[in-house]
Amino acid sequence: MKIKMALLASSFGLTVLLTACGSDTAEVPDSVQSTDIESKQTEVKNQVKEEQQVFVDELKYEGEEQKLVKLLNLLTKYRNEGDEAAYMALISDEPNTPINQMNPKKLVAVQIDSIDGVTETQGTITATVTIEGASPGSTMYVFHKMNSEWKIYDID
Fold first, then answer.
1. Pairwise CA distance, residues 117 & 122, whole Å
2. How far is it, in rounded angstroms, from Cα 86 to Cα 74?
3. Selected residue with higher pLDDT from 89 and 10
4. Rg (CA), the chain
5. What is the pTM of this model?
6. What tens digit of pLDDT does each residue of 126-140 get?
7. Distance of CA 152 to the CA centre of its chain
8. pLDDT of res. 48
9. DSSP three-state, residue 94
10. Which whole-number Å values give the CA distances from 96 to 54, 120, 139, 153, in the listed order?
């Protein structure tokens, strides 16, 4: 009988001890982990929202216009990533193109105002563009098609 009482008392004491210890250690990591997860989710949502504002919806366009919009989105992507080699690969290699380097400032918003003069070999996009730290302004992108491939000839 004494053994049963001793075991019962030990068991009860151990249960109380484990419950007390377990609750303190279990709550802190869960709340910290929960805060970290929420913070990361918010960060991802903000990044997606920012990217949605910067990139033009390509599905609103068809045919050659859609190809020009895709090229504009790639140009924006590479510029914002700071990938000058990929950026310059989108630029025409015609001798008279005035583009010889990438502007290092990020684009925070691009909204197409019009797509004009799309022919077999050229086209233009006029867009309202916001550069990091500046007010929105009008920018014209001139595209040339050479060897069945669209390239950016000029940006004004």
1. 7
2. 9
3. 89
4. 29
5. 0.68
6. 999 999 999 999 999
7. 22
8. 47
9. coil
10. 29, 20, 19, 9
